[in-house]
Amino acid sequence: MSRMNKDNLSNQRQRQIIDAAIDVFSRKGFSEATTHEIAKEAGVAVGTIYKYFNNKRDLLVKVVTDTVITGPLIEILQKRDDVDDDTFIRSIISDRLNFGIENIGRIIPLLSEILRDDELSKRFADAVLKPNIVIGERYLQAKLGSGIVRPLNVQITIRCIIGMLIGFLLIYRIEGKKSPANSMRREEVVDEMSQIILHGLQSEKT
Amino acid sequence: MSRMNKDNLSNQRQRQIIDAAIDVFSRKGFSEATTHEIAKEAGVAVGTIYKYFNNKRDLLVKVVTDTVITGPLIEILQKRDDVDDDTFIRSIISDRLNFGIENIGRIIPLLSEILRDDELSKRFADAVLKPNIVIGERYLQAKLGSGIVRPLNVQITIRCIIGMLIGFLLIYRIEGKKSPANSMRREEVVDEMSQIILHGLQSEKT
Amino acid sequence: MSRMNKDNLSNQRQRQIIDAAIDVFSRKGFSEATTHEIAKEAGVAVGTIYKYFNNKRDLLVKVVTDTVITGPLIEILQKRDDVDDDTFIRSIISDRLNFGIENIGRIIPLLSEILRDDELSKRFADAVLKPNIVIGERYLQAKLGSGIVRPLNVQITIRCIIGMLIGFLLIYRIEGKKSPANSMRREEVVDEMSQIILHGLQSEKT
Amino acid sequence: MSRMNKDNLSNQRQRQIIDAAIDVFSRKGFSEATTHEIAKEAGVAVGTIYKYFNNKRDLLVKVVTDTVITGPLIEILQKRDDVDDDTFIRSIISDRLNFGIENIGRIIPLLSEILRDDELSKRFADAVLKPNIVIGERYLQAKLGSGIVRPLNVQITIRCIIGMLIGFLLIYRIEGKKSPANSMRREEVVDEMSQIILHGLQSEKT
DNA sequence: GATGAATGAGAGTTCATTCAT
DNA sequence: CATGAATGAACTCTCATTCAT
């Protein structure tokens, strides 16, 4: 078998394990998940997991990295600036909100793991939060300079906006089926959130 | 010993255990926390924990209920309406943000537990989220009727605002000491967040 | 309070505890019975049990001694010999069988405890088995001398007869409601057993 | 390693555990026996026990089933009828008595467990008691029809006979070294018991 | 004497990890 | 490389026993 095939096979095995782990960690949480269940769901033997990961925790780190951290988060932010600001912000909100809602069953449980683990928190901070914040800050700073936005503290503001996204998803998850977001078109939700960011609560007249 | 004293002693013991549990659960998370460590920290024997709680999970439920759920959340919201809207919103933000930051080391880890436990989620939803949302919705609805705020979807908007608070705290926790909120006066942060809610990003001129 | 009353009260307490213990030990077995349950059933505090008995095991010993050992076993055996042999044997069988069946729910569970405990076995052997065997052996020996019974080994025979009684009760207990003894008059059962002892299986003609 | 070998190894392990369990349960009783002691005696780790049995109680059930229930009880009973009745009964008594005495250290302690456990009692009733009783009843019924035995209640009689065997062993166990059966040839004991069954106590002359 | 809250040793059980096959 | 039986440390929970009141 060629090197290529071997690698493919190896990668495929690893993929199976990670996918199974995502599922089990999401359903049970890290501590309640057992290596046996992951192995079973991956269709491999327990020992095989340890060929690809040093231990259960390393597998969690990989899962979190793959699922939450290596998201297509930044892509849009880096996209062209040739759109007007409203459209730009709306498209970011739309992208992140849809991604979040689509993957709510994985994102929130894994976020839960991140919140209780210093190393994961740090990784998440460095790989997800920071880059997004930086990009957001730059964007806002630019708009601030051009007088398009009101004078504001860029650092706090961007954290509020990202926080709103995360917090909204969190509430969405906790409310479950009862969430009013379930009985609306997704685009409406995106619109509402975008409007808050752009105009706050104030009446147009103000 | 009088009945009164007995009850006091009993309550005190329970308090010791709950306080220790809050601490250990916050530091280690539920699964990694051991009953022995909680007992040690509470200064009681392991068996004593089981005199007051049926099992470890019941203790968690009590801890979450006491710490997160039974908060003075609603009080301010029910306060008089004789203040202008800006002041009202600002005072709520101030209260919740300060409470959250002050107790960040407990709130977020316990939130993490809530997120992975359906029963806790439901309790949190019913006892914390729902009441606050309802009050917020009513408030917003009233303002909406009087034309003070722009036309908006009340349900989504209130969830965005509460989400912003939660999400901001979450990011604050994850960033740890690096958070720029640490190098600002608390009131500034409150102001910024209030401004976003009230005016969004838009320039005053708009 | 007079000395007499004190003693009575004390004896009464002890009686309460023993009665409760008989009940709980019979239902749960020694190991599964808890001192709390016994105390509760006796209507006293756990600590009170330890005022009357050194420990749980001592309570068991007392219970076994009271219930199984100090039975009215010997009385009949020591009765007058002025009845004919058939009547005598029948009356013993009747007495023991009725006592056993009446108290089956206590006798067998406590026998179970005796069987697994060397000290209890020894006590039972000395206080119950031996006296009865000795009396039986003497009786049989006398009858043997007078030619009324066939030549036989007195020691083995008496153990077979007492064994039959015990074993029959044991089977009765294990079969529970399904036992055919339940659908017969007690006297019939006594008759059958007596007949076996007196005549074995053989036809009258022999 | 071939499938065959694996199975053998697996069976062997299970055997080790069961044998150790028989020993420890017999010595200590179920409740006082610890999984650690069983594991130690079996020469395996505690966890290994749980690979083969769901829990301690399942192990007990298996032990009882193997030791007491799956006995060669019925074989002889089903044997040829071409022997005369005296010989037939004597051979059964001989077989059961020898088996019982040989295994007295296991049989009685396990019987003790059976007596205090409803499920085990039921299993014992169904798997051991009932089949033997049924066979005995049929045998006796046949003899009854042919006038070889005196008129008797078949159901009670067979329970008395089996009871005699069990009860004799029970007394033998309780008396321990002091039992007079120890200072006799085994065959003598068998003869005596057979004679009681066949002729009762009565003198030949009667 | 009576109480029952407190104790803590010790139980059954689980499961991440290893390693001979 | 893959396997999964075996491991044993460590967990939660129980309960006989004590002792201050």
Order of helices and strands of chain A: HHHHHHHHHH
Helix content of chain A: over 70%
Q: Total helix count of chain A?
A: 10
Describe the biggest sheet of chain A? none
How far from one another are the termini of chain A? Answer: 72 Å
Morphology of chain A: elongated
The greatest interface between two protein chains, and residues involved on each side, is: C-D, 64 and 65 residues
Mean pLDDT of chain A: 87
Q: β content of chain A, as a range?
A: under 5%
- Helix vs. strand class of chain A: mainly alpha
The low-confidence parts of chain A are none
Described by its quaternary structure, the protein is homotetramer
Q: What is the alpha-carbon Rg of chain A in Å?
A: 20 Å
Itemize the secondary structure elements and their pairings.
The structure is a homotetramer of 206-residue chains.
Chain A: H1 3-28, H2 35-42, H3 46-52, H4 56-69, H5 73-78, H6 85-102, H7 104-115, H8 118-145, H9 154-175, H10 186-199
Helix pairs in contact in A: 1-2, 1-4, 1-7, 4-8, 6-9, 6-10, 8-9
Chain B binds a DNA duplex (21 and 21 nucleotides) through residues 1, 6, 9-10, 13, 34-36, 39, 44-51, 55-56.
